[in-house]
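Budget justification aside, the reviewers requested a transparent look at the raw inputs and outputs of the sequence design task funded under Objective 1. We therefore reproduce one unedited record. The lines immediately below are the structure tokens for a 453-residue chain.
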């Protein structure tokens, strides 16, 4: 598999040791393990900490929220029955080796979370396997994906200069095929594919598992992995409600200031905050202008998750999901494998739809879901027991679900954002090969840990 980016290992050892300055010892470099301050207790920060813990390097994690796990956010919908849904990351992909290995290490079970999709389009309902792309487009797309490994770097740069919608059109995708790709692919990226780099999209589809990494889920909720890592590294190493507001770096080391008045000194920082939050930190000295521009340029996808608890699973299939051209956009059965009469169907909206749905009342959302489903599934509103709603576009720290690399941004912005700033290394899904995934967050956290050790 050809990788989306080449990870550049930067020499970061300056400051990680003490040079003994007498002539007799001038060539002796006495190793002193650095004390590391990790910003953020999402999967990147926890993975970095786990790496340092194994290397016996001292660290502390400063987390702004009053919980760990960041954009992996398992939520109990129904306390009496313990039904758990994901307000953030849902799927662990079959290709996501580090997540799978960590689950294995910590004794966490991965459960099948694959779905077969129904479609509601132009007022008609087609059941799974009764709709799809034309055979011509299917064959063409397979050929495009197969060709991906043959692309030169110059080809990839050219691809990055156009959006995914345009790329599809240029490759003969038209009519219903194009409409379906817009509905499905926009769901993956969290905004219309007219905003997505064609390179980022093709790389994702060409490198992913058959179900596009929508394969499994951690039993009991994906946050279980965060809790296990936290227990392994020591909960006392994670300080919640410690939002970093200022970072001062000198030759001698770093001092990190939090909103609550606490301050910490160390040798190195691993900053795993999403770009919006990175930008809000007062960096002294300031981040280079190029990096600030890149932080300003990168957008994050708007995703709204609206889990709806029903008294019965009227959708009948455990592996039910449904793509629609209506306001609730995409539904999936969020309590698959959780045996109960009740069940949660989650409405997953993206882009402008997400922003609209997020700003309405529960009653409006229930009514809109009813409007979409009632013609095909009957009066579902009478089965509705409750709902919750989380809009990532309003999330205080990320202002979006995950990074959205637009036209011309993948090769230009990502390396700039990934550059260390003095003693600070950056990590997080936005910098990952598996960008937008838990796997990517873990990869970058471990890579940052490796660079420091
Ligand atoms: C709706 C949605 C759906 C998704 N679906 C999937 C999926 O199906 N599969 C998948 O693999 N991935 C999915 N993802 C992506 C996945 O959740 C992320 O890639 C991953 O969790 C990002 O981890 P991270 O550590 O990079 O960032 P985060 O989880 O955001 O962690 C960063 C942490 O830094 C903290 N922080 C920010 N600023 C500061 C500060 N100043 N001081 C201290 N702490 C700070 C934040 O509070 C946060 O806890 C989804 C995400 C969302 C939101």
């Amino acid at each position: 598999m050809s990788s989306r980016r080449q990870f550049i290992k930067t020499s970061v050892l300056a400051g990680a040791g003490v040079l003994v300055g007498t002539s007799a010892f001038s060539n002796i470099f006495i190793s002193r393990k650095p004390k590391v301050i990790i910003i953020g207790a999402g999967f990147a920060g926890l993975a970095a900490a786990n790496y340092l813990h194994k290397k016996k390097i001292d660290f502390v994690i400063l987390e702004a929220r009053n919980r760990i796990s960041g954009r992996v956010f398992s939520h109990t919908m129904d306390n009496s029955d313990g039904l758990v849904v994901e307000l953030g990351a849902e799927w662990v992909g079959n290709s996501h080796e580090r997540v799978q290995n960590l689950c294995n290490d910590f004794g966490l079970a991965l459960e099948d979370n694959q779905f077969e999709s129904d479609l509601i389009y132009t007022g008609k309902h087609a059941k799974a396997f009764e709709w799809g792309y034309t055979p011509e487009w299917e064959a063409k797309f397979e050929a495009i994906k197969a060709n991906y490994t043959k692309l030169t770097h110059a080809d990839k740069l050219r691809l990055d200069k156009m959006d995914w919608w345009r790329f599809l059109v240029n490759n003969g995708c038209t009519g219903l095929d194009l409409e379906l790709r817009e509905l499905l692919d926009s769901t993956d990226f969290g905004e219309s594919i007219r905003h997505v780099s064609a390179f980022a999209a093709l790389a994702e589809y060409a490198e992913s598992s058959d179900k596009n990494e929508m394969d499994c889920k951690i039993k009991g909720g994906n946050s279980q992995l965060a809790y296990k890592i936290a227990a392994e590294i020591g909960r006392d190493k994670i300080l919640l409600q410690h939002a970093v507001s200022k970072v001062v770096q000198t030759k001698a080391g770093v001092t990190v200031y939090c909103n609550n008045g606490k301050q910490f000194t160390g040798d190195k920082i691993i900053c795993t905050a999403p770009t919006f939050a990175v930008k809000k930190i007062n960096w002294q000295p300031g981040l280079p202008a190029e990096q600030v521009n890149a932080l300003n340029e990168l957008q994050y996808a708007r995703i709204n998750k609206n889990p709806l608890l029903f008294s019965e699973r009227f959708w009948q299939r455990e592996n039910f999901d449904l793509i629609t051209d209506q306001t609730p956009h995409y539904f999936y059965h969020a309590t698959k494998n959780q045996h109960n009469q009740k069940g949660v169907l989650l409405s997953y909206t993206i882009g402008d739809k997400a922003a609209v749905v997020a700003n309405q009342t529960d009653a409006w959302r229930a009514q809109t879901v009813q409007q979409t489903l009632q013609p095909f599934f009957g009066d579902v509103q009478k089965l509705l027991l409750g709902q919750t709603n989380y809009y990532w576009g309003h999330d205080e720290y990320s202002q979006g679900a995950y990074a959205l690399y637009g036209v011309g941004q993948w090769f230009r912005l990502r390396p700039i954002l990934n550059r260390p700033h003095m003693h600070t290394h950056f990590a997080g899904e936005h910098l990952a090969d598996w960008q937008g995934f838990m796997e990517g967050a873990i990869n970058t956290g471990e890579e940052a840990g490796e660079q420091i050790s």
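The chain has 14 helices and 25 strands. The chain has two domains: 17-70+223-299+404-452, 74-220+300-394. Computational costs for records of this kind are itemized in the attached budget.
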